[in-house]
Amino acid sequence: MKEMIKRLSLFPVIAAIAFLLIQVICDLYIPTLTADMVNNGIVKGDTSYIWQLGLIMILISLGGFAAALLNTNISARISYKLGCGLRKDIYRNASQFSNDEFDKIGTSSLITRNTNDVTQVQNLIEMFLKFLILAPLYLIGGVFMAYRLSPSLSTVFIIIVPIVALAAIGISMYANPLYEKIQKTIDRLNLIFREGLNGVKVIRAFGKEKQEFERYEQDNNEYTKTSIRVNAIIGLLMPIMSLIMSLATIAITWIGGKSIDSGNMEIGTMMGVISYSVQIMTGFMLITNVISSIPRGMTSAKRINEVLDMTPSICDAKSSKQTLGQEVFLTFDKVSYCYQGAEKNAIQDISFSVRKGKTLAIIGSTGSGKSTIVNMIPRFYDVGGGKVLLNGTDIRDVAQSTLHDRVSLIPQKSALFFGTIRENMQLGKPAATDEEIWAALETADAAEFVNKLDGGLDGVVEKGGGNFSGGQKQRLCIARAILKNADVYVFDDSFSALDFKTDAKIRMVLKGRLKNAVTVIVAQRISTIMEADKILVLNEGKIAGVGTHDELKQSSEVYREIIASQFEKGEVA
Ligand SMILES: Nc1ncnc2c1ncn2[C@@H]1O[C@H](COP(=O)(O)OP(=O)(O)OP(=O)(O)O)[C@@H](O)[C@H]1O
Questions:
Q1: d(CA 240, CA 230)
Q2: Which residues form the ABC transmembrane type-1 domain (predicted)?
C-alpha cells in the first residue's frame, strides 16, 4: 500500500485532510455548544443567549457541511486519478513483457489486476480520505470533548473504545487472507469464462458444455462460499459495536442521572456527553463500513505491485548497438531453449544459416519445436544457450525496436484487429499508400475478396477478424506482413488454411517480392516446403536432417516418414 500512497499528489491530499479536519472540528463542537445552551440558556431562561448561541451553531454546521462537500470532491478526484495512473502503468509495463512474464502471471489475471484490483485500491484511497481518517478523529475527538465536559462520565468511553478498536483490528486481520483467496478465485473464474467463450465452438463440438460449466460452477461456488464467510465475520462487527455503545449510553445515563440527583452535574452536561457517545458510535460505524475495504485494498495493491515491479526478462542491453550489418543473413548458432518449469529443452543445439533471397523451411511433427525456433528470431523468448545472429550481430546486442523493425512475423494464429482493412494493413507500414496496400493484397491473393467488400479498403474487420474465413484471415496477415520492409520474413504455419493451389500461387509470387530478404517458412505440409532452398527437419527439439527436398528424401528417415504419412492422406501432389 505504501507504493500506492507514494503515488498521490501531496497538495490535494493535504487539502482533503484539511477540509476533513474542519468538518470534524465543527461536528465535535456542536454537542459542547448544546450543553452550554441547555445549562446557561434554557435552564436559566436567557433567550438572547439562546439566539446568540443558536446562530453560532448554525454557522458552524454550515461550515462543517461545506468542508464535507469539498473533502468528498477532492477525495474522489485523487482516487480516480490514482486509478487512471495505475491502469496506464500496468498497461505500459505489461506491453513490455516477454512471453515468459505472460506465462508467469497469465492474461486473465492481468486483466483482473488492471480492472478489479485497481478499483479496490481506488475505493480504499477514497474511503481513507473520506472516512478512515474521520472515524478515529470522531473517536478520539469525541472522547476528548466528552472528557472536557465531564471526566467522570467519559471514563466509560476510555474503557470501551480500546476494546472495540482491538475487536475491529482482530477481525480485519482474520479477514485479510480470505480476501486474497477471493481475488485468486476471481482470476480463475475469469480464466475459465474467457477460455469457455473463446473456445465455445470446440466445447460444443465435443459436447463438453456440462464439464466446462461444472468447472466454472466449482470456482463460482468457492468464491460465493468464501465471500459469505468473510461477510459473516465482518458482519459481526456492527452488532458488537451497537451492543457495546448501547450499554455505554445506559451506563452514562445511570451515572449521570445519579450525579444530577445529588446536584453534582447539570442536565446539559449529560446531554452533551450522550451526544458525544452518538458521535463515537458514528466513528465506529464508519470503521465498520470501511474495514472490509482495507484487507481487500491491501491485497489488490500487492497484486498490482507484482505487475508493476516485474521487470521484463527481455530488455535492451545497456551496450545495445543501434545498427545491424548491411549484408542480410540469419544464423542460429547451437541454440537451445527450455520453457519455465519444463523438464527438458524444447529445442536443443539448433544451428543453421540462411542468406538473402533464400528460403529456409522448418518441418516436424507437432510439438517438435518449430514455433519455439521462430519465436527466437524477434526475441519473444531469449535463447537459453547459443546465439541468434541477424546480419552478423547477436540480436541481444541490438535495441529491440531496431530488431522488430527488421523482422516481419506472421504468427501461427492470425491476429486481426477491430477496424478497417486499411488500418489493419497499416500496422505493417503506417505510411502505406492505397497502391502499396493493394499490391500487397494482390501478392497474398487477397485483393479479390477485399474488392468485393463494402467499402474496399475501408471495409470493416470485426474483432479478431471474425467476419473472415480462416484462409482469408491468413491471406490478410500475409499481406500485412509483406507490406513491411524487413530483412527476415517468418511465416509460422501461415499457409495451413489455404488450399494447395492458392498456397503454391502465393509462395511463387512471394519468392519474387522477398528476394532481398531471408524467408523462413514453418509448415506441416511437404508441398508447402519442398521448393525451399534449405529444409530443417525437427524431431523432439533436435535437428533430424538438413538439406533440399531431394537430398532429404535420400538422407532423412524422419523426412521420408513425413512424406509417407502425407502420401497416405493424399496431401502430397
Ligand atoms: N509456453 C510454453 N510453456 C511450456 N512449454 C511450452 C510452451 N510452448 C511450447 N511448449 C512446449 O515446447 C515444445 C515445442 O513446442 P512448439 O510450439 O515449438 O512446437 P511446434 O513444433 O511449433 O508445434 P505445432 O506444430 O503443434 O505448432 C512442446 O513440447 C510444447 O509442449
A1: 16
A2: 14-296
Phi, psi of 438, deg, nearest 5:
-60, -40
pLDDT tens digits for range 354-389: 999 999 999 988 888 998 999 999 998 889 999 999
The CATH code of domain 2-308 reads 1.20.1560.10
- Ligand 1, atom 31, residue with closest C-alpha: 367
Q: Is 573 in the pocket of ligand 1 (CB under 6 A)?
A: no
Q: Of how many residues is the chain composed?
A: 573
* Residues ≥6 apart with Cβ < 8 Å to 442: 509
CA-angle at 195, arms to 194 and 198, nearest 5°: 85
Which residue has 515491479 as its cell numbers?
309
C-alpha cell, 408: 516481419
What ipTM, to 2 d.p.? Answer: 0.95
User: Which of helix, strand or coil describes residue 556?
Assistant: coil
Residue 20 phi/psi, 5-degree rounding, is -65, -45
H-helix or E-strand spanning residue 133: none
Q: How far is CA 346 from CA 69, 332, 521, in A?
A: 61, 15, 19
pLDDT value of residue 350 = 94
Q: What are the residue boundaries of the structural domains of the chain, listed by start?
A: 2-308, 329-566
What is the distance between the alpha carbons of residues 498 and 509, in angstroms, rounded to a whole number? 15
**Is CATH 3.40.50.300 the classification given to domain 329-566?**
yes
- Grid cell for residue 547: 538439406
317: cell is 542491453
Ligand 1 neighbourhood includes 339 CB (under 6 angstroms): yes
State the closest ligand 1 atom to the C-alpha of 339, by its place in the atom list counted from 1.
Answer: 4
Separation of 282 CA from ligand 1 center, angstroms? 60
Query: Cα angle vertex 169, ends 167, 171, to 5°?
Result: 65
pLDDT digits (tens, 9 = 90+) for 284-316: 778 777 776 787 788 889 989 999 998 887 777
Sheet with 518-522, side-by-side order of all strands? 407-410, 488-492, 518-522, 359-364, 534-539, 542-547
Indicate if ligand 1 lies below 6 Å from the C-beta of 539.
no
The one-letter amino acid code at 555 reads S
Cα separation, 295 vs 175, whole angstroms: 7
CA distance 438 to 300: 49
Q: How far, in Å, is the centroid of ligand 1 from the Cα of 346?
A: 7
Q: How far is residue 573's CA from residue 567's CA, in Å, rounded to a whole number?
A: 8
Query: What is the residue with the minimal CA distance to atom 12 of ligand 1?
Result: 346
